[in-house]
Amino acid sequence: MRTVLILEEDGVVARAIARIMREAGWSVLQATSAQQAFTLGRLFSIDLLIADVILSEGTGVQAARRLVADRPGLHTLFVSEFSDWRLRRLLPAAGRCPFLQTPFTSTALLDSVASLIPEPLVLAHTA
Q: At what angle do helices 60-70 and 34-43 cross, to 10 degrees?
C-alpha cells in the first residue's frame, strides 16, 4: 500500500484530502506542522507529500525541500486556498510540482496524484 503524508493546518481540508486518499486505497499520515511532517518522514516510508503552500510557521515548499532531501524521489503536490502574490513568489521555488487551488474535487485531486504516481499496470493472469 502506498503512503501519503498530508501537511495541512486546516483540519477540514486535511480530513477531506485524507478521506479521498483512503478511499483510493492509500495509507494516510497527517501533520499540522512542518516539524510533525519531518518526524513522520523519519518514521515512515512515504510515497507522496501533499502540502499546503502557506503554513503559519514557514512554507510547505520549505518543508517539501527538506523532506525530499532526506527522501530523493518523494513526489509532492501543493495545495492552497490562496491565489495571490504569496503563491507567485513561492511556487517557482517548488520546481515542477503540481498545484491545486482549494476547493477542488476528488477527481481533480486523484488526477493530480495519478499524474505524479501512475498506478502500476495490472496484467490479468492467463492460463
A: 20
